[in-house]
Design a protein that fits this description.
Strand order of the largest sheet: 1-3-4-12-7-10
Strand content: over 45%
Radius of gyration: 15 Å
Distance between the termini: 40 Å
């Protein structure tokens, strides 16, 4: 058994986020583990750029209301205690509503060793129109 040494809180890079985002790396597994876990805090209106994960991503909302957008224009609302999975390779974005902070636990895996796919592929920024799209609850 090993206790993981806590790293300092990091500020989300401007290339990947709109607005102020901070994250704590909770776990970045070393071989054979491929698990990744971050606690991410979004200021009101902050959100990620479009991106996808080679092995998918799971988001567990801890506080606030999370917005999760998909390429078909749907923007889902997820509330505290709800968990959302994003399949491997699916372009998506996530972030806070314009008026409240949001915090989620982000879980994903690195691809299997020997592969040539990055864990996360970052794409273009979300437009204001995409961010402001009508919201829906779970399908």
């Amino acid at each position: 058994m090993e206790f993981v040494k806590q790293q300092p809180t990091g500020k989300g890079p401007e290339e990947w986020f709109t607005g102020d985002v901070w994250f704590d790396v909770l776990y970045a597994g070393a071989e054979p583990s491929r698990m990744r876990a971050n606690m991410v805090r979004f200021a009101p209106g902050a959100h990620t750029a479009w991106h996808h994960h080679a092995v998918g991503q799971t988001l567990h909302v801890v506080a606030g209301v999370a917005l999760i957008g998909t390429r078909d224009g749907t923007v889902f609302e997820a509330h505290p205690g709800e968990t959302v999975t994003c399949p491997p390779g699916e372009d998506h974005w996530h972030g806070a509503t314009a008026d409240r902070f949001m915090q989620h636990l982000a879980l994903w895996e690195a691809p299997a060793p020997g592969g040539d796919r990055p864990e996360t592929t970052w794409l273009e920024k979300v437009t204001e129109e995409q961010y402001a799209s009508p919201r829906t609850r779970a399908r």
